[in-house]
């Protein structure tokens, strides 16, 4: 089944994202997480892909097992940075062999912690080129990333939106956003995207802040702005991890509830492979 068909049905679609354990951790750990997430009845689960492809086999295997063993639709992420066209083509063949027909097409970022990645064969610069090639390759549902605050490398949101429009026009079915902590940013973005003629579903991506260290990493990685209300919580509970976690779950639950009240097509939860905290949010808002 193509994921876009879930969004066509109309009810807010619950989806979740997991990441494969690092190479030196047992693969099986992810299945403990998935056992918990399954109970929340997500419509689909997406599996991230380490840019450069160093952990590729795990993405494919986990996405395949989500579908076959858990009976949940899966979406495999694929990043094109550092990849040749023939590498991409053979990964897509592997996905089809595993009956995975939904791909999240991304550019990726140059990994800081993997000096062994060989960039000499790189034939992609932007995600739209990957979307074009996946569409040409065959029977795939395609999602792509949107950045409500603008991608950090792009000087202006208006320019980023031009690029986003080009990506969508190459054959994207729906978009999932980068995390954000202020829903007004998302609503403004939707308005601007629609004015640019981007008419596919745009699904908000929500990540709960569960500890104060995480927030520094988020700012570093994607530049998301942190509203004063959230900053106050992080300051208040800096030395009280359990209270911070509770407050983070509450904050994310309020964000999700407000998004649902504003008729978003779905909610995509960045689970960080955390079952209990994600279950709490889903229960708080009556999703699943
Ligand atoms: P692009 O759409 O290619 O955009 C990247 C930059 O290039 C932007 O600044 C854009 O404005 C610019 N640009 C695009 N087209 C043009 C053009 N024609 N001319 C000039 N400039 C242009 N990363 C991973 O490594 N693995 C994952 O699994 C993963 N999953 C993600 C899931 C979601 C939902 C999101 C939101 C992000 C994810 N990322 C993942 C992170 C993502 O790879 C980074 O945000 C990356 O920096 C941008 O990827 P993109 O696909 O948006 O790139």
Largest sheet: 9 strands, parallel
Nearest-integer average pLDDT: 95
Helix proportion: 40-55%
Low-confidence stretches: none
Helical stretch tally: 11
CATH class division? Alpha Beta
Structural class: alpha/beta
* Cofactors, ions and other ligands in the entry: flavin-adenine dinucleotide
What is the name of the CATH architecture?
Answer: Alpha-Beta Barrel
Lateral arrangement of strands in the main beta sheet: 7-6-5-4-3-2-1-9-8
* H/E element sequence: HEHEHEHEHEHEHEEHHHEH
Number of strands: 9
Ends distance: 19 Å
Overall outline? globular
Structural domain count: 1
Q: CATH topology, which one?
A: TIM Barrel
What Rg do the Cα atoms give?
Answer: 18 Å
Task: Please name the defining characteristics of this protein.
binds flavin-adenine dinucleotide; 9-stranded parallel β-sheet; 45% helix; 288 residues; 11 helices; alpha/beta
Secondary structure elements and their pairing?
Elements: H1 4-9, E1 13-18, H2 29-38, E2 44-47, H3 56-68, E3 73-79, H4 85-97, E4 102-106, H5 127-137, E5 141-146, H6 157-169, E6 174-177, H7 183-195, E7 202-203, E8 205-206, H8 212-222, H9 228-236, H10 241-261, E9 266-270, H11 275-285
Parallel strand pairs: 1-2, 1-9, 2-3, 3-4, 4-5, 5-6, 6-7, 8-9
The structure holds flavin-adenine dinucleotide.
Flavin-adenine dinucleotide binds next to β3, β4, α5 and α6.
Task: Give an overview in words.
This protein has 288 residues and is of the alpha/beta class. The protein has a single domain (4-285), classed as Alpha-Beta Barrel (TIM Barrel), CATH 3.20.20.220. The chain has helices spanning 4-9, 29-38, 56-68, 85-97, 127-137, 157-169, 183-195, 212-222, 228-236, 241-261, 275-285; strands at residues 13-18, 44-47, 73-79, 102-106, 141-146, 174-177, 202-203, 205-206, 266-270. Strands 7-6-5-4-3-2-1-9-8 form a nine-stranded parallel sheet. Helix 7 links the parallel strand 6 (174-177) and strand 7 (202-203). The radius of gyration is 18 Å and the shape is globular. Flavin-adenine dinucleotide binds next to strand 3, strand 4, helix 5 and helix 6.
